[in-house]
Amino acid sequence: MSSGPTFSFATTADDVATVFVDEIKGKNVLVTGTSLKSIGFETARVIAKYANSVIISGYNAERFKSPFSRLRKKSHKRTIYALVLDLSSFASVRKAAAEINAQPEPLHVLINNAAASFVDFKLTEDGLETQLATDHVGPFLFTRLLTPKLLASATPAYTPRVVFVSSAAQAIGTGVDFDALENPDPAEYSKPLAYGQAKSANCLTAIDLPKRSKGKINAYSLHPGVIFTNVYEKENSIPTLQSIGTLDENKEAAAGIPFKTLPQGAATTIAAAFDPRLNDQPGAFLDNSTVANDQLAPHSSDPAKAEKLWNVTEKIIGESFVF
After folding, report:
1. What are the structural domain ranges in the chain?
2. Which of 68, 211, 304, 307 is the most exposed place for a label (fewest CB within 10 A)?
3. In sequence order, what DSSP letters do the residues of 188-231 get, joined into one string?
4. Which GO terms describe its molecular function (predicted)?
5. Which H or E run includes 56?
6. d(Cα 260, Cα 263) in Å, to the nearest integer?
């Protein structure tokens, strides 16, 4: 990256936002997955200090009443919207996107943060495996439907952004299994492999979106770090987290694993959304709030795989992007 502020493992979301406050001011931002004790909520909390408006979302209206209330109290009278969005359901995604598109304001930044992590095999109402549906296909459709809203924020000096919160898990396995994506099979299902595939798909989508839009939209993916979020408290997730070595036998953080705090975990998302030094690096992967393309596995950075994934996912959702 060009000269300017330097960030590290210990950098917090507030640290990054303070540096880029002028970039955040006046922006309208949507963050998916904003339950309490989540990276998404911390991201929205910090952005709401300076942005024109922030839209938060969750799949259960009752569940995010508390985050919404807390955010409004901390937002210095800026506009906060709450959006019901279940990314595992095409119908819910379409309804939520229609609600946003009905608003008069443009959308400057879309942060695809929400994810289903290490869940049991289950088919969605659209016939997809839940983890890949929630983490990749749903955000892909949501981005497609909000593209006009994003393009409406563009000016000669500003290019709208889409951020995909991926993970170092993008390196797990051999990448997206296209057969499993289109024809999920419970006999072949593995929680960590499906998670890795979804996170690889995030990276590939971020690489292809700027190309497909011919530079009209910039996109980035990132590893937020290992953070003790609410995922670590879910009984169904704990055995998998123990098997991959992030939790010990006592369900506590495993020794030797460098965990970040929530403020540290949200830092890279805010850098991806607002660091102007990324303008000439569309599709970049970030870690510790800095470009880290060298950390991408070959299957998560292959342009041919990115193109194939895009085409297959458009087929699944039944429509194409229009820029």
Report:
1. 13-316
2. 304
3. G--HHHHHHHHHHHHHHHHHHHHHHTTTSSEEEEEE--EE--GG
4. oxidoreductase activity
5. strand 53-58
6. 8
Are 219 and 205 in contact by the 8 Å Cβ rule? The answer is: yes
Return the closest-CA partner of residue 274 out of 289, 295, 293, 292: 289
Q: Taking a C-beta distance cutoff of 8 angstroms, is the pair 110, 83 a contact?
A: no
| pTM metric for this prediction | 0.94
> What residues pair up with 31 in beta bridges, in sequence order?
56, 111
Q: How many CA atoms lie within 13 A of 274 on its CB side?
A: 28
d(CA 290, CA 6): 8
Q: Which of 24, 286, 306 lies closest to 165 in space, CA to CA?
A: 286
- How many other β-carbons are positioned within 10 Å of the β-carbon of residue 9? 12
DSSP state of 232: G
Catalytic residues: 189
DSSP 158: B
Tens of pLDDT, residue by residue, the chain (323 residues): 556 789 999 999 999 999 999 999 999 999 999 988 899 999 999 999 999 999 999 887 777 667 777 777 666 556 889 999 999 999 999 999 999 999 999 999 999 999 998 899 999 999 999 999 999 999 999 999 999 999 999 999 999 999 999 999 999 999 999 999 999 999 999 999 999 999 999 999 999 999 999 999 999 999 999 998 767 666 777 787 777 777 788 777 777 888 999 999 999 999 999 999 999 999 999 999 999 999 999 999 999 999 999 999 999 999 999 99
> Collapsing DSSP states into helix, strand and coil, what is residue 70?
helix
The two tokens of residue 193 are: 């492999």
Which of 147, 184, 179 lies closest to 162 in space, CA to CA?
A: 147
Q: Which CATH architecture has domain 13-316?
A: 3-Layer(aba) Sandwich (3.40)
